[in-house]
Amino acid sequence: MIDRFVFTHLIEAKENRGGGFLLLIDPDKTSSNSYLALAEAAEDCGVDAILVGTSFMLSASFGESVKAIKEATSLPVIIFPGSFAQLTPAADAVLFTSLISGRNPEYLIGEQVRGAPLVKRFGLEPIPTAYMLIESGSNTSVHYISGTMPIPREKDDIACAHAMAAQYLGMRLCYLEAGSGATNPVPISMVNKVASCVDIPLLVGGGLRSPEDCAARIDAGASFVVVGNIMEEQQKFDYLRELTAATHSKESVPA
Ligand code: 1GP
Questions:
Q1: CATH number of the domain to which 203 belongs
Q2: Residue 134: inside a domain
């Protein structure tokens, strides 16, 4: 029997606040001082959970980074793994992703088979997540590393069919990903169409830079937005508050 504390926390955040805001920390991209300051401030700034993950894992101390982030916050810390090697007992949960938009067996099931025994041994809560890359105007790290084609950004029907397959396979979340630092985020029209095709909650991320970007995806039917780059670049906590406030559509914006 798998506990679903973190998944339940996410769903409650969505239901109570209108939309959930997930802050992505990539320990490869910023200094530990910067990301720990961000993690410490996150809850007070309205963040609902922290994702930690990286495409490359340039540093050998990924596990130490997750542990330090966990110690800096009382928010759930969820691994968003670039590979099974990023699994660590320091986190609460893992987005147990399968790259369903691609046809590379390593990222559909290979990494998951390597990671499953570690998830069990470490006591991590696995959150089964369908991961779908959406074309964003330029080649992103995930496209290159996974060797897969993203779904064309105007092909709503293809995106819907993938999301429906994910739901019927029993996935709990569906992540529409334009890629970190994407030039063009996932189109609002695609979020709207996919949300109308499935009942499972949607996460949308990649290239979301403004409160308007976040609010528009929640209004279109996303349950959660994921934001990384813009906060790593800015380190402005007031701006983080603006992003979370725009995402929490049920909460009144402070005057
Ligand atoms: C990337 O969706 C996340 O996997 C976040 O993207 O870094 O562009 O905010 P950004």
A1: 3.20.20.390
A2: yes
- Total structural domains within the chain: 1
- The answer to the question of residue 226 being in a domain is yes
How buried is residue 37: exposed, middle or buried, by Cβ count under 10 Å (0-12/13-18/19+)? middle
User: pTM for this one?
Assistant: 0.96
For the CA of 208, the closest atom of ligand 1 is 9
Ligand 1 centre to CA of 89 (Å) is 24
Name the residue with tokens 């939309």: 19
Q: In the predicted model, what is the mean pLDDT of the chain?
A: 94
- Selection from 23-32, 47-56, 103-112, 134-143 with the highest mean pLDDT: 103-112
3-state secondary structure 220-237: CCCCEEEECHHHHHHCCH
CB neighbours of residue 179 within 10 Å:
26
**Structural domain boundaries enclosing 83:** 5-9+24-246
d(CA 213, CA 207): 9
Query: In percent, how much of the chain has pLDDT > 90?
Result: 85
Question: Does residue 141 lie in a domain region?
Answer: yes
Ligand 1 site-directed mutation target among 86, 208, 231, 239, most atoms within 8 Å of CB: 208
**Structure-token pair, residue 4:** 């679903």
Q: pLDDT band for position 4 (50/70/90)?
A: confident
What is the mean predicted confidence (pLDDT) over 188-198? 98
How many angstroms is it from 179 CA to the middle of ligand 1? 6
Contact 209, 164 (CB under 8 A): no
Q: Give domain status of residue 252, yes or no.
A: no
Contact 159, 176 (CB under 8 A): yes
> How much distance in Å is there from the Cα of 182 to the middle of ligand 1?
8
